[in-house]
């Protein structure tokens, strides 16, 4: 899986081959792409429906994503997370993403207006689910506002997922931030596993009449990197998208290299080969939490 990986030392990477790949069941054409060497970034795949964009506030990077206009959602969102990013409070500012043409986005300024039948809940609906949570950026108003862009949203079951197990996982990730240092996060929405043929249902957004596919899975990949850059530890989470009750997010941990097999995404591509294999094979959440930088 990693034999063809290219690592080029410098500020920018260059993927120089043209080939077909399949990520989360959505075929894309990979082409030459230059991009920053940030630790959180997966290998960049750009194609007819994939566009790499990054949001900043001044000189401070906020988050990056691979945006798929076909699904009107990000395949993944990657970002650094540190204590200075987080505070308290929520100021909603739902908006279109200024870096993507509006006709390639869906209108999320109001809720989707779509109910869904789920086990264990008398009523349920699809929420506008953040991939980078607003609470991961609520210490800086301008950075938090960017988390409300349409491109950061997917239709996510509210009761038992968005407002339940997924929210608890997001809060737990914030608790895993090393004091005085950085946690690197990738969050993704997956419609099909690599090579899979799962059914993909769609909803109609009441705001603009657009048809939106609903992800079948959500995942997170986390990275801690030593201050010297010579050691690392990773952990992954993989959750089928449904309403849960009395289930712990910790039941859904897996090594990042297993997550790569499911998604077709090459996570933390910029890690040196000498430490990447060991870091991505870790299967213990406790070992990840206790990893010392």
Structural commentary:
It is a single chain. 15% of the residues lie in helices and 31% in strands. It has helices at residues 141-146, 158-162, 165-175, 256-263, 273-280, 285-290; strands at residues 12-15, 19-23, 26-30, 33-36, 50-57, 60-68, 73-82, 126-130, 153-157, 182-190, 202-204, 211-213, 217-225, 232-240, 253-254. Strand 5 and strand 6 (60-68) form a beta hairpin. Residues 1-21 and 27-32 have low confidence and may be disordered.
Write the layout of secondary structure elements.
Blueprint: E1 12-15, E2 19-23, E3 26-30, E4 33-36, E5 50-57, E6 60-68, E7 73-82, E8 126-130, H1 141-146, E9 153-157, H2 158-162, H3 165-175, E10 182-190, E11 202-204, E12 211-213, E13 217-225, E14 232-240, E15 253-254, H4 256-263, H5 273-280, H6 285-290
Antiparallel strand pairs: 1-4, 2-3, 5-6, 6-7, 7-10, 8-9, 10-13, 11-12, 13-14, 14-15
Helical stretch tally: 6
Order of helices and strands: EEEEEEEEHEHHEEEEEEHHH
The largest sheet, given as strand count, sense and whether it forms a barrel, is: 7 strands, antiparallel
Radius of gyration: 18 Å
Number of strands: 15
| Apparent shape | globular
Helical content stands at: 10-25%
Strand content: 25-35%
- Unreliable segments of 5+ consecutive residues: 1-21, 27-32
Average pLDDT, all residues: 89
Query: What's the arrangement of strands in the largest beta sheet?
Result: 5-6-7-10-13-14-15
Outline of this structure?
The protein is α+β, with helices and mostly antiparallel strands and 293 residues long.
Fill in the keyword field for this structure.
seven-stranded antiparallel β-sheet; 6 helices; globular; 293 residues; alpha+beta; two-stranded antiparallel ribbon; disordered N terminus; 31% strand; 15% helix; single chain
């Amino acid at each position: 899986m990693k034999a063809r990986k290219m690592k080029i030392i410098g500020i920018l990477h260059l993927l120089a081959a043209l080939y077909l790949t399949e990520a989360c069941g959505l075929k894309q054409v990979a082409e030459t792409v230059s991009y920053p060497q940030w630790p959180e970034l997966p290998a960049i795949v750009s194609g007819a429906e994939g566009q790499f964009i990054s949001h900043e506030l001044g000189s401070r990077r906020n988050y990056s994503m691979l945006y798929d206009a076909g699904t009107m959602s990000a395949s993944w969102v990657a970002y650094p997370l540190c204590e200075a990013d987080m505070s308290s409070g929520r100021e909603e500012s739902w908006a279109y993403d200024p870096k993507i043409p509006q006709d390639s986005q869906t209108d999320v300024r109001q809720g989707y207006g779509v109910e869904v039948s789920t086990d264990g809940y008398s009523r349920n609906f699809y929420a506008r689910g953040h991939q980078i949570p607003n609470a991961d950026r609520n210490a800086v108003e301008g950075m938090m506002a960017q988390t409300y862009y349409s491109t950061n949203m997917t239709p996510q079951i509210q009761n038992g997922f968005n407002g339940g197990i997924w929210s608890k996982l997001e809060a737990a990730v914030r608790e895993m931030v090393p004091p005085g240092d950085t946690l690197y996060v990738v969050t993704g929405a997956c419609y099909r596993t690599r090579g899979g043929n799962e059914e993909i249902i769609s909803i109609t957004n009441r705001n603009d009449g657009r048809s939106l596919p609903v992800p079948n899975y959500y995942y997170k990949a986390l990275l801690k990197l030593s201050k010297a850059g010579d050691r690392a530890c990773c952990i992954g989470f993989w959750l089928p998208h449904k309403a849960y009750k009395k289930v712990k997010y910790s039941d859904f941990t897996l090594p990042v290299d297993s997550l790569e097999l499911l998604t077709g995404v090459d996570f933390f591509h910029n890690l040196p080969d000498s430490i990447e294999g060991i870091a991505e094979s870790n299967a213990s959440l406790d070992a990840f939490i206790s990893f010392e930088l």
